[in-house]
């Protein structure tokens, strides 16, 4: 079922207003009342549509998430198909590191809705993708556990807590991948 035209317009206005608030005031300025006022919709509409700030943060992340998934599913190698599994694992983890750091504040907000807010949706897609590649790279290894172990260091709250920079994260993940697959 497609979205009504007025609902689609409201969604676009809300997301544009929310993105502008984050760009100008940071994630701390992303209040539901502020977004409602900036977009010209009622606060109730915002809550019905997105639930809370974390739902709104997820919606802001959504478009770039779709593009990212398209890239690792069907883009050029080594991130996309056509490269050896281990090269794809490394490329995926590097791209996800860059993505995590670029959207860290939004991810922190999106992942605070509850204890399991990080999981589902995008995480499940990442996990499935990595598990398939792990199974190709090293049959017999517990692919599901290994995928979780490789994704663990990219949790937004951990990256924020440790204040890791991209080179640190990528080097650490490269060492894990080398230990698992290059030996």
UniProtKB/TrEMBL annotation:
Entry annotated with the keyword Transmembrane helix: no
Record flagged with keyword DNA-binding: yes
Chain ranges of the HTH tetR-type domain: 8-68
GO molecular function: DNA-binding transcription factor activity; transcription cis-regulatory region binding
Regions recorded as binding DNA: 31-50
Record-linked InterPro entries: Homeodomain-like_sf, HTH-type_TetR-like_transc_reg, HTH_TetR
PROSITE patterns, per the entry: HTH_TETR_2 (PS50977)
Keywords carried by this UniProt record: DNA-binding
Protein name (record): AcrR family transcriptional regulator
